[in-house]
Design a protein that fits this description.
By secondary structure, the chain is mainly α. It has a domain of 51 residues. 42% of the residues lie in helices and 0% in strands.
Length: 93
């Protein structure tokens, strides 16, 4: 069974061609993308947004597990009423 759908493959392919021509820009800053890895990542993220079949990001499992699991709190000791220490009187002979 394929990990990536045809639509996702096409998105990555288009992003790679744009990167080769120098036309691919990053999302926020709008700078030109020069890295092949960055071009692939942009293509995959666009495919995810459109709902194409793409595996989740590597860190996605860890983040989801952290959010779902409740935080463990350290067990607190219950402070009961303090007992006064009894003093024993020394016996005199």
């Amino acid at each position: 069974m394929a990990k990536y759908s045809k639509g996702a493959q096409n998105k990555v392919e288009k992003a790679m061609h744009e990167e080769k021509r120098g036309q691919l820009k990053s999302g926020r800053s709008g700078k030109r993308v020069t890295s092949r890895k960055q071009a692939i990542a942009i293509g995959l993220s666009e495919a995810r947004k459109e709902g194409k079949k793409v595996p989740p990001k590597k860190g996605a499992k860890k983040k989801a597990a952290k959010k779902a699991a409740p935080k463990k709190k350290a067990a607190k000791k219950k402070a009961g009423p303090k007992k006064a220490a009894k003093k024993k009187a020394a016996k005199k002979k």
